[in-house]
Amino acid sequence: MARTPLSPSSPFSPFSPAFWRSPLRGPWLTSVLGVVLLGGITVLFLTGLVSYAAYNPNLSPVNDKTPDKGILGFYLFSWPTSPHWLYRLNQGVHVTLGITLIPVLLAKLWSVVPKLFTLPPARSLAHALERISLLLLVGGALFEFVTGVLNVQLDYVFPGSFYPLHFYGAWVFFAAFVVHAVLKTPMALRNLRRLREESSELVSPNPAEPTVSRRGALWFVGGGSLLLFGTTVGQNFDGPLRRTALLAPHGGAEPGSGPAAFQINKTAAYAGIREADTNEEAWRLVVVGRDGRTARLSRADLLAMPLHSAALPIACVEGWSTSDQWWRGVRLRDLAALVGYDADPPDVLVESLQRRGAFRRAALRANQVADSRSLLALFVNGEDLTPDHGYPARIIVPAAPGVLNTKWVARMTFGDL
Amino acid sequence: MRRPVRRPALPLGSPLQLLLLLSSFALAGYAGVRLLEGDWFGVALWFVGAAILHDLVLLPLYGSADQALLRGCQAAGRRRWVSYVRVPAAFSLLLLLVWFPLIGGRVADRYALATGLSADGFLARWLLITAVLFGGSAVVLVLRLRQSRRASKEHA
């Protein structure tokens, strides 16, 4: 029989085991990488679910970018306000860990790539289905990592809105991930305990002379992870630590100077906020409450109300955050009391002056309104808010995702949503 | 008279495995129809395309680049030096792979407008990190060479 380049008997064909010559491939390396991903991806999935819950999507349609979630929202709960760094920690872990795991994912896929070309394509029906499931596993993992990495860099090239893509994609991926973990983890653990000899289809029948040991390869992968971690994690801290995040989107220097020089998600210019709408004469806060009771407040009216302080961070879904900033303003529950909710602060719908943007309207739950640290802030770090941080007034709520801390607030409607 | 049992063309395989896979597909389908709700073709293309692009383009590409590097080192009679080039090159390309939208400047305008930060430094910082990686690797190589030369002198 003639040996064409793609015939499995030709060593030049990827369908031939002899094509794969790296002496590094083998069950031990794959198992180590697999166990790291088992732990890492589980944490990614759980922190992702927690982040989803933090938006309180069940509270109001304006918070819900995935109204068709159905049973996938089964675990949703009222997002708490304590500890106030909860979202900062959760999202810092989610994004930083995700970026750190990229080399491990790439190495894992490299270590098993000969299996993609295994012949016969299917030994049994179960095997055929498993291979289809692997497409969901690999495609899903790459889809999740790619959409996440692009989104934190504001590169919105993916086909649709980030929230539904990353959320539903995560569930498709997780379905394949769980079954893969159930089928493979016992074998991986056996491999790591060296209960089995290294005889596997992963081991090259005709290995090339090694240039590095398997342990060396593992150090190589770990080094890549460490490099990404070291140049990313700093975007969750201020000062010199932020400057260590050399390539992360919110690393480096703080924007501007002075007390309000801390990280900005969207500037006033980006949100289309004009000075003509925010100056003392033009801007009024409309507060609507029980039975349509309405108050129209200027910034001076707000300043005449009791002012309170809270030290709270800004923490973004994109995995960057600031340390606690010193906010000063009117308590949300005092504003609720102003329009008829004296003892029982309800939910609130907050609307911004900004004309576009996915979260120009956002809802807060009653427990968030009731927290004495939840403010309609007028000052930050001892000075008036700057336009980029939401002048004339912005929401700041402990433990809430950044985008729910609405800037340039124009209208607040208290009542059960 | 007993009829001989016909063997199916494709055996069933482990029933437990089948059950697990079918339940996994059901959940993936439930989420999948929601994932494909909008631009179904685009999403499917990204989902499947990511796997194909990685397995059939990216992986062969860096695999053959590594082979070319190894052959180059072998031709120079320096096979053991390959890691001193491979590691900094791979790390540099890894950073580029993850941060190419910022490094390449394709999101520079939106980034600067949204965050109030300068979009200019990323390419420069990536180049500097790359310089440090290769430079550091060269220093380690020189130190190792001196060490082994000293060791071989002591043995002589």
Automatic annotation (TrEMBL), chain A:
Keywords: Membrane, Transmembrane, Transmembrane helix
Molecular-function annotations in GO: oxidoreductase activity
Protein name: Oxidoreductase molybdopterin-binding domain-containing protein
Residue span(s) of domain Oxidoreductase molybdopterin-binding: 278-414
Highest classification ranks of the organism: Bacteria, Bacillati, Actinomycetota, Actinomycetes, Kitasatosporales
Keyword check for Lyase: no
Annotated CDD domains: SO_family_Moco
Species of origin: Streptomyces curacoi
Record keyword Glycoprotein present: no
Membrane-spanning ranges: 28-55, 92-113, 134-153, 165-183
From TrEMBL, chain B:
Alphabetical UniProt keywords: Membrane, Transmembrane, Transmembrane helix
Record bears the keyword Transmembrane: yes
Bilayer-spanning residue ranges: 44-63, 84-103, 123-143
Protein's name according to its UniProt entry: Uncharacterized protein
Organism expressing this protein natively: Streptomyces curacoi
Classification of source organism: Bacteria, Bacillati, Actinomycetota, Actinomycetes, Kitasatosporales
